[in-house]
Specification:
Largest sheet of chain A: 5 strands, mixed
Largest interface: A-B, 84 and 84 residues
Oligomer: homodimer
CATH class of the largest domain in chain A: Mainly Beta
CATH superfamily of the largest domain in chain A: Aromatic compound dioxygenase
Order of helices and strands of chain A: HHHHHEEEEEHEEEEEEE
CATH topology of the largest domain in chain A: Protocatechuate 3,4-Dioxygenase, subunit A
């Protein structure tokens, strides 16, 4: 008969002994990756509990929070991903899964508003439809490798907010791919297109995660940014975002997506705003 | 403008810098208990992620697991409490909130099957109705303080499984308080009552937590036990369980409720089984 799950009353600390009983049970029962995950989860979950010593009322509040977070999820809303985002977990997992050598463009998260199948455009096209207001910008640059050599035929899949702070994926009233599009670099690795300067927007604040942010004194704004997903044969796919350097939420992104190297400056020209930016991709492993 | 949430690309480790950005944001925004909880949660959640380095697919599996756990909850089923129970968190919080001096009866969790308002019985009564099978047992003893002095007028609120492995709270077909009852000690601190030997049973296995236990090679059995909630004027309320020493699941309780000091032996007598057990209560603080 296994005895691992029993708690020995004679232990110096009854609390430590609870944790040890769980670890022994996992060690005796679980295998492979599940064993590794459960041992680590137990140590960190119990470590958190021992550190903050929740009252029984606080623990029930946590149970209710998690339950409401699950209840809030449907086909259009994933409140647990939002929780992961606002706790920085999503960006941490992105960093772990996208380690890049020095000089490569850093990654940021895909986010919930990416849609596959955006229209393909020639370089020089305008991604905004005629009704779209906002500040017109030219974005141009090269896609290169770590040695600075041009990557020809790289595809840039682009998406961003409209001036009303909605993504095309959110806005049932408009063009389902407004301000979205795919560009392809020529032999010189160059790309260029027109769009509108992106604006700041809020992540959903009407659910349990919004209530958590409020209770923690945090807002639910994301600083303005444009999303890019770059793919090229022989290279690692690069998912990233470029953040506008004059945004008031740049230092307090609700989902921690901002990396210093991804903050860019739009230059005023006689022909409107202009952003020059090169992307550095890494070879596929 | 706060800069705390930005991730500095020049940091030695981009992953550590994600964690530091979240901690800085909480430090600058949150106050009091919420600040303390969020800082500790961030450190331990990120510590878990850094230790196991989940793939993006694994993280999405975790998101799906939590979502399904929330969806499984309704008025009769609380899958997040079951998750807390099966990860040992409930017992750890019970231990933290019920620290007792040496010699006091140890606590165990209340569980989901306690019902207020069980009938009051005189000592010597049988808590089982006439239709209840199983092995008849006499349970008797004293309720005393740390000095061994009798506590008169202590109330013992008792509940347990029937021989069919159901609690009265689960069994819509039977007496809604079968095998439940309240006893009160006399001037000598003594109590005694008849019941049936409790049996092992399973916690719900048809939801996401059941799937997690299976994936971890764990079963969902609880060893046989009787629940007691003791209250007496001037003393801390004591919630505990007494576990049957010949139960095959004593060493592998799915919810880690077993403490060595709570394991008891039923003695065979000419008049059926008998258990003698004293409870030691602590003065209210």
């Amino acid at each position: 008969m296994p005895k691992s799950a029993r708690i020995d009353a004679s232990a110096a600390s009854a609390e430590d002994e609870v944790t040890r009983a769980v670890l022994r049970r996992v060690e005796e029962s679980s295998e492979g990756r599940m064993r590794e995950l459960m041992l680590s989860l137990t140590r960190h979950l119990h470590g958190f509990i021992r550190e903050v010593e929740p009252s029984e009322a606080e623990w029930m509040a946590a149970i209710r929070f998690l339950t409401e977070t699950g209840k809030k999820c449907d086909e259009r809303r994933q409140e647990f991903i939002l929780l992961s985002d606002t706790l920085g977990a999503t960006m941490l997992i992105d960093a772990i899964n996208n380690r890049k050598p020095e000089g490569a463009t850093e990654s940021s998260v895909l986010g919930p508003f990416y849609q596959e199948g955006a229209p393909a455009y020639d370089n020089g096209a305008d991604l905004a439809d005629a009704a779209t207001g906002g500040e017109r910008v030219l974005i141009a640059g090269r896609v290169i490798d770590l040695d600075g050599a041009a990557i020809a035929g790289a595809e840039l899949d682009v998406w961003q907010t409209a001036p009303d702070a909605l993504y095309a994926a959110q806005d049932a009233s408009g063009d389902s791919f407004n301000l979205c599009g795919r560009l392809t670099t020529g032999a010189d690795g160059r790309y260029w297109f027109y769009t509108r300067k992106p604006v700041s927007y809020t992540v959903p604040g009407d659910g349990p995660v919004g209530a958590m942010l409020s209770a923690a004194g945090r807002h639910n704004w994301r600083p303005a940014h444009i999303h890019f997903k770059l793919s090229a044969s022989g290279y690692e796919t690069l998912v990233t975002q470029l953040f506008t350097d004059d945004d008031p939420y740049l230092g307090s992104d609700a989902v921690f997506g901002v990396k210093d190297s991804l903050v860019v400056h739009y230059v005023a020209t006689d022909d409107g705003l202009r952003l020059d930016h090169d992307f550095v991709m890494t070879a596929a492993s």
